[in-house]
From TrEMBL:
Sequence ranges assigned to domain Initiator Rep protein WH1 in this UniProt record: 22-163
Official protein name in the record: Initiator Replication protein
GO terms for biological process, alphabetical: DNA replication initiation
Ranges in coiled-coil conformation: none
Superkingdom to which the source organism belongs: Bacteria
Family per similarity comment: Belongs to the initiator RepB protein family.
Biological source species: Paracoccus tibetensis
SUPFAM superfamilies the record matches: Winged helix' DNA-binding domain
GO molecular function terms listed in the Swiss-Prot or TrEMBL record: DNA-directed DNA polymerase activity
Length: 400
């Protein structure tokens, strides 16, 4: 769970990206549901990135590599990014709503008016009419980016987005099945005209994933005319098991004396909380006492990391440990420290995408770059990212 919340370092990102949530217009705007999971995530990140200047700027920019990794795929796969952007330009957003004078307004627009990739930067724009609607604060729902990354099905994410906006009222209200099919992106399919098939292939799996993955629990109800199902609604309640995903994790750790000492030493907020969570206050305090007493240490944060992960101290030593594993870890942490917050976020995503075993992923989500289970892979990853980083070190040890 900690790993999920660590995904976007909100305190270090600028502008709208810091919020980690997208203002999504509610019932007024219907976006064609025929978006892949990747496109849906991409759309949310682009909207969040642009939100603060949605109506004041004609176009918006975001680093393409950062964009790729924020939505969870290989930054070198630019063809997939192009395909996803093409899909957003070809997707229609339609609105039918009352204006401030009570007059009915209908409109239609491409979701993006254009997108282009140049020099590693993605530039994109919304049509002025759609930008005005998306920025309207009167009716919106917050879509949490940390939450959306948990979904593996586009239908489940679409259902979550369309239900979460009604969490305070406890129900979506009755939707005609035709509208529901549109929201799920299966309108126009004869197969899903049959409710039994719609229920088995779309509704039940999507509800199961939302209830397992997100901070809300859905209960579908249907209404019939004769024998035919004509309407559906979803009752919504908060999921007490996963409600913690909505708040910043480790908040309590920030008030302790050991946390304050870690921050004074130069450890980031996230790193300090990660160490306290993984090792406990007593062990971190003992290693801190040891490291703070060392002379001629260039990076006390890097040295503390080596002490915690390698079990050094509290015995004094004349020099820094010659253990190659500890030195590799120290160098890795130095490289990470020099990178921007968005680059660090992207590095973690790229590495996580290469882990297939559940145990390895869980260990990395818990321990980050100090993950014992992934030490050899972490070493190989950073050797590739920073060629020559360990060139003068002996080969011995597990790496990391």
């Amino acid at each position: 769970m900690t790993g999920e919340m660590d995904d976007i370092p909100r305190d270090q990102l600028s502008g709208a990206l810091r919020r980690g949530a997208v203002k999504k217009h509610v019932a007024a705007i219907h976006v064609s549901g025929k978006l892949t999971l990747l496109q849906r995530k991409l759309s949310n990140v682009l909207l969040l990135n642009a939100y603060d200047t949605l109506t004041s700027r004609a176009s918006h920019q975001i680093d393409a590599r950062t964009l790729c990794l924020m939505i969870g795929y290989n930054s070198n796969d630019i063809d997939t990014l192009k395909q996803s952007l093409r899909g957003l330009v070809e997707t229609v957003a339609e609105w039918d709503m009352l204006d401030e004078k009570g007059r009915q307004e209908w409109g239609v627009s491409s979701l993006l008016s254009y997108a282009k990739l140049k020099g590693g930067v993605c530039e994109y724009a919304y049509s002025p009419a759609l930008a005005e609607k998306l920025h309207d604060p009167k009716v919106f729902a917050l879509i949490n980016l940390n939450m959306q990354r948990r979904f593996t099905s586009g239908h489940a994410l679409a259902l979550y987005e369309n239900c979460y906006r009604f969490v305070r009222t406890g129900s979506t209200g009755w939707w005609e099945l035709e509208l529901f099919r549109r929201l799920m992106g299966v309108d126009g399919s004869a197969y899903y005209e049959v409710f039994k098939q719609l229920n088995a292939k779309i509704i039940k799996p999507a509800v199961a994933e939302v209830n397992k993955t997100s901070n809300i629990i859905l209960s579908p109800e249907t209404k019939k005319q004769g024998r035919a199902v004509t309407h559906i609604r979803f009752l919504i309640r908060e999921n007490p098991q996963l409600a913690i995903l909505d708040i910043d994790d480790g908040e309590g750790a920030r008030h302790g004396e050991v946390y304050a000492r870690l921050r004074a030493l130069g450890a980031s907020d996230r790193l300090a909380r990660q160490w306290l969570g993984a090792h406990g206050e007593d062990q971190v305090r003992a290693r801190l006492d040891y490291v703070e007493g060392r002379k001629n240490v260039v990076s006390k944060v890097g040295y503390l990391s080596a002490a915690l992960e390698g079990g050094y101290g509290p015995e004094p030593a004349a020099t820094e440990p010659a253990n190659p594993q500890a030195e590799r870890l120290r160098r890795i942490l130095e490289v990470i420290k020099a990178r921007t917050p968005t680059q660090r976020d992207a590095d973690k995503r790229l590495f996580l995408s290469q882990l297939t075993e559940g145990g390895a992923r869980l260990d990395f989500e818990r321990h980050g770059w100090m993950s014992p289970l992934n030490a050899a892979r972490i070493r190989a990853f950073w050797e590739e990212m920073s060629p020559g980083l360990f060139a003068d070190l002996p080969e011995g040890g597990a790496g990391g």
